[in-house]
């Protein structure tokens, strides 16, 4: 799947002094300050200076423009020794937005090694975990349009236990200056009545929408659109119900002619308002703000901060019943124009980094104005994903009922359960990966969940099984109401060498090359590992604790000096010693497999017959640390 990546905080790239810069770089800096990123790229590329700082500026410009492939290419063009922590954190964010969680963690850890703020690194690692957890627990969701729909474009919805209020443009070209009008329909568990005009006499010549109503039902806050000096602006106005009619009052005191305020949302007690504004002092575009009600007045709005807001637009804030704040943004990694994100408050009042919930919440178009209906376990949102963005529709999303499928893996010769098997399940048609419960890896049992709707529908799934010492197997599985327990037998491989590479190893992309993890080197007669080697294994152990479902393969090699039998023994000792070190750092013994190869796989031509330098022999005295996915 292809994602669009957009910058959420523009890096402070411009140098404090410009002495020594070429004319092109100076022009590039000026264009960067003006926000003309295409021109900045042209000027920076024309610069004779091909330093890391120029490459970094080009990468950041491409990032803002959404050309993430070019951005990643320029970040990776910076030599390893010249990379800074900010580069690696940015690369981590790119990998996260592409659902490459392992690489996102590795980049974040490397940023920590280069001096990144430890708190920032931990926040990034926690974000990766939360992102994975949400995707894992929300894999099977149903999404469909509701029966009631706006006739054209929509400025959002407001849902109460009895009613839904939404805006619509209607059909055809409107003759009046008012393009948007409000509609209301009653509902019982999302079964809707026919829509009626809502607050029809409220500002009959002004576009209004994106409303919220106070808990008592007598005060409404709404967004009104108007043009001032040829520029469209928005403000949040108040209406009160008098004798059954909505009467317009003044706008909120914090609104101004100098900036826009829009898309208000009230907390369930009516005492807190979230909204969007492009007032000065923000991070760029529309930012999210919060204001508290004190008596009859609202406090000075507070910006929600850089973990929520970006250099572009954050709009339509909605606090759902689980106390998660959802909003739409076009300024961070996503699927299309406006994507939905959510965040929650920490105990200290700060906000957690925003999480993209993925599909089906988000699409290649705009998705926004989410609200939940906890009574029926459903969420509503507005999207223009159909009709190429020409029309908005209201959709409901809910978790589909699931059926758990149990899988047991046995040895074909002994009929005994096999432990530590690598199991994956794919939907055969589109290769969609199905989450597998890994608790059974130690006792031979697995389980995964499928939607009830796929039972007896003839949909094919593939169960892929891999285990060192056994032949790989792919099992075709058609789920049915009768077949919820599956037994699979693996055939052992005869005459395996004592140590062998596991054919099922899938190396991690880090960043563009297929690598294991990292090699460590040792002197032939060295009793203990060097400080450098220990740091590498420390980092591996920390990564494994983040993802304990991974296995670890240790392959030890020696140079070709001396007898082959002695070298094989040395490699086995080194492999076991590395295993003991990782176990001492908290890695489970069952997660580690060792391989000893002696001089069988030298990396150069330094065999026993060749005369080589000590440095060349040193290249071969290595331990390969590999993750098994």
From TrEMBL:
A Pfam family assignment: PD40
Range of residues in the leader sequence: 1-20
Keywords assigned by UniProt, alphabetized: Membrane, Signal
SUPFAM superfamilies with a match to the protein in the record: DPP6 N-terminal domain-like, OmpA-like, TPR-like
Taxonomic superkingdom: Bacteria
GO cellular component: membrane
Domain OmpA-like: 509-629
Name by which UniProt lists this protein: OmpA-like domain-containing protein
């Amino acid at each position: 799947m292809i994602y669009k990546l957009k910058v959420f905080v523009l890096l402070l790239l411009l140098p404090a002094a410009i002495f020594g810069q070429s004319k092109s770089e100076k022009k590039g800096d000026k264009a960067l300050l003006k926000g003309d990123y295409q021109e900045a790229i042209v000027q920076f590329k024309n610069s004779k200076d091909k330093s890391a700082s120029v490459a970094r500026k080009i990468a950041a410009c491409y990032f803002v423009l959404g050309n993430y492939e070019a951005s990643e290419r320029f970040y990776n063009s910076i030599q390893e020794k010249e990379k800074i922590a900010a580069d690696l954190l940015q690369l981590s964010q790119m990998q996260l937005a592409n659902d490459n969680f392992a690489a996102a963690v590795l980049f974040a850890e490397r940023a920590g090694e280069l001096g990144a703020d430890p708190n920032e690194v931990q926040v990034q690692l926690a974000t990766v975990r939360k992102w994975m957890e949400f995707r894992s627990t929300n894999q099977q969701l149903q999404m469909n349009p509701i029966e009631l729909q706006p006739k054209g474009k929509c400025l959002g919805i407001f849902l109460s236990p009895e009613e839904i209020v939404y805006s619509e443009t209607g059909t055809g070209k409107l003759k009046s200056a008012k393009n948007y009008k409000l509609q209301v329909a009653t509902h019982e568990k999302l079964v809707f009545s026919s829509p009626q005009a809502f607050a029809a006499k409220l500002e009959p010549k002004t576009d209004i929408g994106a409303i919220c109503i106070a808990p008592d039902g007598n005060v409404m806050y709404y967004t009104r659109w108007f043009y001032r000096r040829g520029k469209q602006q928005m403000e949040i106005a108040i209406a009160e119900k008098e004798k059954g009619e909505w009467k317009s009052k003044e706008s909120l005191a914090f609104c101004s002619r100098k900036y826009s305020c829009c898309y208000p949302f009230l907390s369930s007690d009516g005492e807190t308002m979230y909204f969007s504004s492009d007032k000065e002092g923000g991070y760029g575009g529309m930012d999210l703000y919060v204001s508290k009600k004190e008596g009859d007045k609202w406090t000075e709005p507070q910006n929600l901060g850089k973990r929520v807001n970006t250099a572009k637009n954050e709009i339509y804030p909605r606090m759902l019943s689980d106390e998660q704040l959802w909003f739409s943004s076009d300024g961070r990694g996503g699927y299309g124009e406006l994507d939905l994100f959510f965040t929650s408050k920490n105990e200290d009042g700060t906000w957690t980094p925003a999480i993209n919930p993925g599909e089906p919440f988000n699409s290649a178009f705009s998705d926004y104005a989410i609200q939940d209906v906890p009574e029926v376990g459903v969420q509503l949102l507005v999207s223009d994903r159909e009709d190429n963005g020409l029309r908005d529709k209201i959709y409901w999303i809910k978790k589909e009922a699931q059926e758990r499928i149990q899988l047991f893996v046995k040895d074909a010769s002994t009929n005994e359960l096999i432990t530590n098997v690598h199991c994956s399940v794919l939907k055969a048609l589109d290769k969609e990966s199905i989450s597998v419960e890994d608790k059974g890896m130690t006792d031979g049992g697995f389980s995964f969940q499928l939607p009830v709707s796929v039972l007896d529908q003839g949909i094919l799934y593939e169960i892929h099984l891999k285990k060192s010492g056994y032949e790989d197997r792919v099992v075709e599985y058609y789920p049915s109401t009768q077949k919820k327990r599956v037994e699979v037998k693996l055939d052992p491989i005869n005459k395996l060498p004592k140590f062998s590479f596991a054919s099922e190893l899938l190396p991690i992309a880090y960043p563009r090359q297929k690598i294991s993890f990292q090699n460590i080197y040792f002197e032939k007669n060295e009793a203990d590992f060097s400080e450098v080697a220990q740091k590498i294994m420390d980092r591996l152990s920390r990564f494994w604790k983040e993802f304990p479902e991974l296995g670890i393969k240790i392959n030890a090699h020696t140079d070709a000096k001396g007898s082959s039998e002695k070298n094989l023994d040395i490699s086995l000792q080194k492999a076991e010693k590395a295993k003991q070190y990782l176990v001492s750092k908290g890695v489970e013994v069952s997660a580690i497999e060792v391989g000893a190869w002696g001089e069988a796989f030298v990396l150069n031509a330094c065999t026993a017959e060749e005369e080589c330098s000590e440095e060349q022999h040193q290249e071969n005295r290595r331990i390969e640390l590999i993750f098994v996915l």
